[in-house]
Design brief:
With about 300 residues, this protein is an alpha/beta fold. Helices cover about 30% and strands about 25% of the residues. A hairpin with a 6-residue loop joins strand 3 (about 40-45) and strand 4. Helix 3 (about 115-125) crosses helix 5. The protein is globular.
Length: about 300
C-alpha cells in the first residue's frame, strides 16, 4: 500500500503515516529519564523473510535466575519501535524484576497483517536461543503488550496454546486493542478529546488490514475457546475508547473458568504509561499491582 494513499484530515491536521509516527515519538518528552539496568543486549532473530530486531534488558536487581517477559510495543500496528519504548522497557524490567525482551516487529502500511504478528510469534518460538547469555527461569514466561501490542500478545498466546505449546504462563495486557470491529460503547463515549480518538483508531486499522479481510477473525474478543488463555491481567484507562473491550474480554476469560484480573485507572487516558513524568504516583500504583499479579 502507498503510505500516502490514506492521508486525510483529522482534527484539522493532515494525518499521514509519518505524522502518526512522529506524534508517538513526541510523547517521550512526558516520560521520566531512562533508568539504569544491569545489562542490555541488542540482537536479531533471523528468518528467511525478515531479520527481527530485539533488545534484551536485565534488571538492576541481583538475581541468580530471572523470570522473563516478552514485550510488544503499542502504536496502532503502524508506530513504535525499540528506541521509542526504551524507557518503558527499562522501567518494566527494574520494577518487575523480569528480563524484558522488546520486539521491533514489522509495521503497517509497509507490512500489513499478518507480518508484524508473525514476527512476534517467531520471537516467542525462539526464546531459548535469544537468552543463551542470561540466567533465566522459562517456567515463568510472561507475554505483555500495550494497545496494538496487546492485540499481538493475546493473539500469539492464543495461537500457541491452541497448538498445545503452553510455555506462556501469564499474559499482561495494558489498555489492549482487542476488537478491530470497534463495536463497544466506549468508542462513542470517548470518541473525541482524550488523545486517542475513534476516527484515528479506524484510520490505523484501515492501514493494518484490508477492508476485504475479516477483522472479527483477528480480534481476540471474538476468539473461541477462551479457556485456553493463561492467567491474565488487564490494565485499563478509564478515558479510553478501548476501555470497554478490555473489561468485556476479562469477563469472558473469567466466565470460561480462567483467571483474569482487571485494573482500571478511571481518570487516565490511553498511552498513560508514556506519561510517567506527569503522573508518577498513578504509575507507581499500577506497577505495584502488576507485581502482585506476576508473583
Amino acid at each position: 500500500m502507498d503510505a500516502a494513499a490514506k492521508q486525510r484530515q483529522i482534527d484539522g491536521l493532515e494525518w499521514s503515516v509519518e505524522f502518526a509516527r512522529s506524534s508517538l515519538e513526541a510523547l517521550g518528552k512526558f516520560a521520566q529519564e531512562p533508568q539504569i539496568v544491569s545489562k542490555i543486549k541488542d540482537t536479531i532473530v533471523c528468518t528467511d523473510e525478515y531479520d527481527i530486531p530485539v533488545r534484551i534488558y536485565q534488571p538492576i536487581n541481583n538475581n541468580d535466575c530471572y523470570p522473563v517477559m516478552i514485550y510488544f510495543h503499542g502504536g496502532g500496528h503502524m508506530c513504535g519501535s525499540i528506541a521509542i519504548y526504551d524507557k518503558i522497557c527499562r522501567r518494566m524490567a527494574n520494577e518487575t524484576g523480569h528480563i524484558v525482551i522488546s520486539v521491533d516487529y514489522r509495521l503497517s502500511p509497509e507490512f500489513m497483517y499478518p507480518a508484524g504478528l508473525n514476527d512476534c510469534l517467531t520471537v516467542v518460538q525462539n526464546i531459548e536461543s535469544l537468552l543463551e547469555d542470561f540466567n533465566v527461569d522459562l517456567q515463568r514466561l510472561v507475554l505483555a503488550g500495550d494497545s496494538a501490542g496487546g492485540n499481538n500478545a493475546a493473539s500469539v498466546v492464543y495461537q500457541m496454546h491452541l497448538s498445545g505449546d503452553i510455555r506462556i504462563s501469564k499474559l499482561l495486557l495494558i489498555y489492549p486493542e482487542l476488537d478491530l470491529m470497534m463495536s463497544s460503547d466506549s468508542y462513542h463515549r470517548y470518541a473525541h478529546g482524550f488523545l486517542l480518538e475513534t476516527v484515528k483508531i479506524k484510520w490505523f486499522f484501515d492501514h493494518y488490514i484490508d477492508e476485504v479481510n475479516d477483522r472479527q477473525r483477528i480480534s481476540p474478543l471474538y476468539f473461541p475457546k477462551k479457556e485456553l488463555f493463561p492467567e491474565t491481567m488487564i490494565v485499563a484507562a478509564g478515558l479510553d475508547p478501548l476501555v470497554d473491550e478490555g473489561r468485556i474480554f476479562c469477563e469472558q476469560l473469567n466466565s470460561s473458568g480462567g483467571y483474569c484480573e482487571y485494573l482500571i485507572e478511571p481518570d487516565l487516558i490511553h498511552a498513560f504509561f508514556t506519561l510517567d513524568k506527569l503522573i508518577p504516583l498513578q504509575i507507581e500504583r499500577v506497577y505495584r499491582k502488576i507485581n502482585n499479579f506476576l508473583e
